[in-house]
Each structure stands twice: as structure tokens, then as C-alpha cells.
Amino acid sequence: xxxxxxxxxxxxxxxxxxxxxxxxxxxxxxxxxxxxxxxxxxxxxxxxxxxxxxxxxxxxxxxxxxxxxxxxxxxxxxxxxxxxxxxxxxxxxxxxxxxxxxxxxxxxxxxxxxxxxxxxxxxxxxxxxxxxxxxxxxxxxxxxxxxxxxxxxxxxxxxxxxxxxxxxxxxxxxxxxxxxxxxxxxxxxxxxxxxxxxxxxxxxxxxxxxxxxxxxxxxxxxxxxxxxxxxxxxxxxxxxxxxxxxxxxxxxxxxxxxxxxxxxxxxxxxxxxxxxxxxxxxxxxxxxxxxxxxxxxxxxxxxxxxxxxxxxxxxxxxx
Length: 319
Prior knowledge:
The protein contains 10 helices and 8 strands. Strand 6 and strand 7 form a beta hairpin. The chain has 3 domains: about 1-120, no CATH class; about 150-180; about 190-310, Rossmann fold, CATH 3.40.50. The protein is an alpha/beta fold. The chain is about 50% helix and about 15% strand.
């Protein structure tokens, strides 16, 4: 019974660590996900910890998280698939920006919805456990390992190596080996041509929860699509004031939901002088489309109009 109790205790500790990591992610301002995305992540993590990872299908998630009924069809309503992709990107960004030293990593492998939990301690524990075993094998074997030619040549090889280095130092100064290479002019000009853009949080007008969710989701879609534009660097909103070598633009906007009609206003501002270089308005009927589809459509149109009209100086075409 003692080993089983010890195993149960260790399993509970690992479960508590995962839940603590989930709370840490949800509380971080660097985890850019709307409320529905946070519910999605919390649901799949808790279901996995409870041993129900095999039941995490699009149908069950759509009913539990997004309030869909029994007529839900994942082929016609990709809400679960789209939200899973958004949370994958939000987790990748979180661990890249501020979570690199966290004890637990939570990821959602592609092809499914069951999360994966990993930690750096896993590999270090295995290496620490294998080291004594190797030493015991050497001690308790019938005879000592035979001396190899490498062991005999090692005392001779090291002085010879230092001697060769001394000769090279006389022929050519060591500074020529250790000095960093100068950046070629072509690389320097490439840095100067880099264009940076900050997608600021969209303002949700009207004070409705639906409008706030749409504003957050549209900003996330814009960030994801802008990262695919060649020659463009996407900055977090709180890093817009850092010194840059190229152009800097701010993408701002607002959303308003009136009944079943959505109004979106977007503008592109030159960070150097505050001039508005591009602006547009988008009106959509929400009766026949899901909000996620509308977000993706409007974001794609914004990126196409901004990049094709070369408003972003130096930015390449959308991939």
C-alpha cells in the first residue's frame, strides 16, 4: 500500500502544479485571449486532469464551452477549431514573452484538443537517475574498463595543442580570430528598412459583452495575420515606445454591435508624426454568420488593403 499511496501523492502534486500554472497563465496580461478562449483552455485542462482527455472532441467542447446544442456540426461551424488555433498562438506568445522560466509548459498539439503538460525537470530527473546507474555498472562489473588509446594520448595532445596555438599567435595576431565580423552593408540596410506595427486594443463601444468579445477577437486575428507579412515586425501594445530603426505604425480601431449589425472603424497611424495614413469602415450583418467567421473575414480584408496599397513602407505581400 505504501508505494501506491506515494504514487497517488505524487500524482496529486503534479495535478496541483498544472492547475497553479493554469492560474498563472490566465492571470497574466501577456496571455492575449478573450473570455471564451480562457474558458476553452480551462475546460480542456480540467478535463484532461480528470482523466477525460479522450472525450475532448469538437462536439463536446462546443456544447460545454460555447453553448451549442445537440444539432452542432463541426463541419459547418468551425468555432472549436478556430478557437483552438487562437489559444495555441496565445500560449506560444505567453511562453515567448514572459513564461520561459515557468515550471510547467501547457501546449495544445495540433490534430487534437487534449493539452500536453511538460517541465524541464522531467529530463533533468532522468539524467540524474541514469548517472548513478552507469557508475554502479562500472564498479560492479567483473573487471575495470580497459585503458583506451585516447586516454594515453590525452596528456600528450593537450600540450601539443597549446604549442600549435602559440605558433599561430606569432604568425597572425589572435585579435583577427576573436574580433566580431562587421555587419555587411546589405544587412544594415535591411535593418533600416524593417517596418514595425503595434496592434492596439480595439475600443468596444456600446458596453455590450458581445462587442467586447468581438473587439478582442478581431485584434487577435489582426496580430496573427500581420505576423505572416514579410518584412513586418509586430510589437506588443506596451512596447510601442521602444527605439526602432525603421518605420513604426499603430493600428487602432473600434467596434459597435447594434442588434444584428456590426460596425468596425479602423485607422493606421504613422508613429513618427501621428498622421493618419489609412482608414476604413466595415459593416457586417451577424444574422447569417458566426462572429469568428466575421472576425477572420474583416481581418483578412484589412491586411489585404493595408499591405497591397503599400501603406506599410517596406512590408512585403501577405503570404
